[in-house]
Amino acid sequence: MTQRTARTSKTTPSEPYLLGLPDPEPQPTEGCPRCEALSQRRATARRDADLSKVSDLNVEMRAHQGEGCA
User: Fold this and answer.
1) How many C-beta atoms surround the C-beta of residue 37 within 10 A?
2) Quick one: CA dihedral 21, 15, 52, 38, positive or negative?
3) pLDDT digits (tens, 9 = 90+) for 7-54
4) d(CA 51, CA 30)
5) What is the rounded distance in angstroms from the CA atom of residue 47 to the CA atom of residue 36?
6) Helix axes 33-47, 51-66, angle to 10 degrees
7) Residue closest to 26 by CA, chosen among 53, 60, 1
8) Do 32 and 67 contact (CB within 8 A), yes or no?
9) Which of 17, 25, 45, 62 is most buried, by CB atoms within 10 Å?
10) Which residues contact 61 (CB under 8 A, 6 or more apart)?
11) Do residues 35 and 65 touch, judged by C-beta distance below 8 A?
12) DSSP string, 2-70
């Protein structure tokens, strides 16, 4: 009969995680209708206290600006 030994697994990281501050919100590019529309939707989401939507719109605006906007 084989004897089993109890295994312990580590559940904590060896080093602490270092988290920085979040990036500032992207600002709409002047003269870009897409940026302006995203900014308006973000303002509405913030007014409605839908912070998840605010975050999603920030991601969408950053992606849009990364592709080059007017």
Assistant:
1) 14
2) positive
3) 677 788 788 888 899 889 999 999 999 999 999 999 999 999 999 999
4) 24
5) 17
6) 170
7) 60
8) no
9) 45
10) 26, 28, 35, 38, 39, 42
11) yes
12) PPP-------S-SS-----PPPPPPPPPTT-HHHHHHHHHHHHHHHTT-HHHHHHHHHHHHHHHHT---
Cα–Cα dist 1/7, whole Å: 19
Q: 59 is written with which tokens? A: 């991601």
Residue 9: C-alpha distances to residues 2, 3, 13 (Å): 21, 19, 11
Residue 7 tokens read as: 């295994």
Max Cα–Cα distance, the chain, nearest Å? 78
Rg (CA), the chain: 22
Q: What is the pTM of this model?
A: 0.69
